[in-house]
Amino acid sequence: MSLFAPNFLSVHNVTTILKGASLNAVVAVGFTLVMILGQLDLSIGAVVMLCGMLAVGLQPQLGWSGSIPVSLAAGAMVGLVNGVFVVKARINSFIVTLGTMTIVMGLTHLYSEGGSKAIDDFRLADWLDRPVLPLLPPMALITLLLVAVFTVFLAKTRPGRNFFLVGGSPEAAWLAGLNRDRYLMAGFILCGLTAAAGGALFAASQSSMTSSAVLGSRTLMTVLAAVIIGGTLMTGGKGSVLKSYFAVLLLNTLFNGIGCFGLGFEVQIFANGLILAVVVLYEAWALHRQELLQGQRPDLMQEVRDGAVFPGEPCAKAFRGRGRLAAAIALVAGIAAVVMLVVAFLQVPAITVPEDAQIRNWDDVYSLKGTDNQPYLLPPGLAKTDIPERPADPKALPETDKLHWWDIEYAGWKVEKAAMPVSPGDGPQGKRVVLLKAGDHPYWTAYVRGFTAIADFYGMRIKVYNGNWNMDLQAQQADQAINERPDMIILAPVDATGCTPLLRKIHRAGIPCIASNTTPCDEAMKYCIAWTGPDDWGQFRMLARAFADALGKQGGYAVIRHMPGSSPFFSRTFAPITELREYAPDMSLLAMDTTNLEAEATMQMVGAWLSKFGPELKGLILAGDDFPMTGTLEALKKAGRGDVVIIAAGNSKTGMDSVKAGETLAITYQSAEGDGALAVHAAARWFRGETLDPVVYLPRHVITREDVDQFMPAQW
C-alpha cells in the first residue's frame, strides 16, 4: 500500500493504527473468552458507551482515579447480570445479551440526557496519546499488556485451560469435576469488565463520550468479525486472545489503508463483510470435512494430519480453525492489491489549477448556482446577527428561557481563540484540503457536491473522509489527515462536544482548520479559525412564529428531535420551544422525543402521540423533512388526521413536495450544496489573507407554498 499511499508506513500513521485498534482490541479480549465458552455477548457495544459515559461524566467529581473504577464496576455488573440469566435461568445468551444491550443503551441515554459528556481537562488524553516508546503510546501499551496477560492466563494456567474444556465439551468438563456455571459467570463478568475498560480508555483518550448508538454497534460488529477471523469457534472450545488482537489490528490496518487512498467508508464495510463471509464459509467447510473423519481409525487421523489423506485439503490444524487468520491475511492482501489497482487505473484525476487562476475574478464565485438554481454563496456581510449579553449563569435559567441556551446558540461568537496559524496570503490555487465529513446521508452527498464545485472553481485539491457517524472512526481519520499534512482540514463533527479533542489535536499539529455544519461547543471553537453552517436557532425561531400564526397561537404540539450528540438535537428542539413560550404562551408542549431520524420509528412515535393526546395535538415540529416527514405523513394518514400543522427542517425533495401539496406548512431553507460550498469558500478566503468572522452562517429563509417552486428541483 505504501507504494500508492506514501504516508501509509510513516511513523505517525503506524502509531495511528495501533492507537485506533485499542478500543476494539481491549473489548475483543473478553469477547474471545465468552466465545471460547460457546456463548455470545451482544451487550459489549452498549457497555462500552455506558462505561465511557460514566468515566467522563463522573470525572469532575471523582477524578479519573474514581470515575474509571466506577465505570469498570458498572461493566462487571452488567456481565454479572448476563451470567446470572444464562447460568441460573438457563436462557440462551443471545437472547439475554440482546435484552441487556437494549437496557444499557437506555441507561446511557438517561444518564447523558440524550447528549454527550465532555470535560476540558486533557492531561490524561495527552498522556495516552504521546508515545513513550517508538510507535507505542500508553494507550497501545495498555492494550498489549492486557492481551499478554490473558494470553498467558489461557495458555499457561489450569483455570485458563479449563475455559477450553468447558466450552468445547461440557460433558467432559463435568466428568473432570469442573463447575461449568462458575466458568460461565466468570466469562461474562470478564467480558463486561473488558468492555468497560475499552469504553473508559476511549473516553479518557478523547476527554469526551457520545451517546450515538453508532459507536456501540460498530464496536460490536468489528469485534465479532475480528474474533471469528482470529480463529475462535462460535461453537466454543477453541480460540486465542492473541490472534483476536492480530485480527483487530489487521482490519484496522486495512481500513486505514483504504482511507489513505481517499475511498469511502462504504468500501471499508464491503471489505469487512467480504473477509468475514469468506472466513465463516471456510470454517463451515472445514468443520464439515472434520465431521466426515469422526469415528475413523486413529492411525487414519494421523495420516490426515500428515497430509497423506486428502492431499491438498486443509490439515487438522486448519480444521481446528488455526488457519483462518492466515487465510484472512491472504484475503486482506488480495483486497489491498485490488484497491491499489483501482486507485492506480480508475481514480479520478486530481483537481488542477485553472489556467486563468491568476487573472480570475474571484467575485464570480457568487454567480455559481446549485442544483436548485439558487446561488451556492452570497457575498459576506449581507446578514447581521444580534448577540445578546450572556447571563452570569445560563444553566441556572429554566430550559424554556432563551438565554438558558446562550452557550450553545452563540457558541464561538465570544470565545477567546487559541493562537491561530497565519494565512499564507497567496490564494487558494493548488492548496490541499481534507474534508472530514460526519457520515453518509443524501444531505451529505449534496454537501460534497457543493464543496467540490467551489473547490474546482478555486483550483483546490480535496480529499474526503467519511466518519459514518462514529466518533471513534472520526478520531482515527483526524490522525490520518494530520499525517498527510494538508494545507487545511475542514471538520464536520460527528459530535458537537466530542470534537473538542480532534480540533485541539489538529491545532497543535499546526494545521489550519475550519469547522462546518454541526456547531461545536465553545471549548472546541477555540481551536478552529471559524465555523460555517446553517443558523438552526435563527431559522427555527422564524419557523416557530409561522407555526404559531397558523394555529392561532393556541393548542398543543409535539417535537420529533434530531440525533443525540448533534447540535440540531438542541437547536431544533429548544429554538421553537423557547420562541413559542414568548410569542405564543398559550400553546403547550405535549411531548418531545428522538427517533434517530428514522421513518418507521417516527411513524410509531407520532401514532402513539395521536392515540394519547387525540384532538389536543394540533401541530408537529420535525427535526428533518426527509425520513421523519415520511413517517409522520404515514401516521397522520392512518389516523385520518389532516388537520395537524407540520413544520420541519428542510429542504429535501420529500419536504418540498409536502409543502407544495399543502401537507406541510413550512420548512427551513438549508442548502446542502451551499453548506459544503460555504466551508471551502471560507478556506479560500482565508488563503487569500482575509479575516473571517468566528461564525459564518448560511442565508436564513423559510420555504412556504407561495415560494417553494423557486427552490425546485430539490438538491437531495
Quick one: overall form? globular
Provide the spatial order of strands within the biggest beta sheet.
4-3-5-6-7-13
**What structural class results from the helix and strand content?**
alpha/beta
The end-to-end distance, rounded to whole angstroms, is 35 Å
Give the helix proportion (percent range): 40-55%
Please count the helical segments: 28
The whole-number mean of residue pLDDT values reads: 87
Bin the strand percentage: 5-15%
Uncertain regions: pLDDT < 50 for 5+ in a row? 313-322, 343-353
The total count of strands amounts to 14
For the CA atoms, what is the radius of gyration?
A: 28 Å
Please give the domain count: 3
**Largest sheet, described in full?**
6 strands, parallel
Would you kindly provide a brief summary of this structure?
The protein is of the alpha/beta class. Helix 21 (500-508) links the parallel strand 5 (488-491) and strand 6 (513-516).
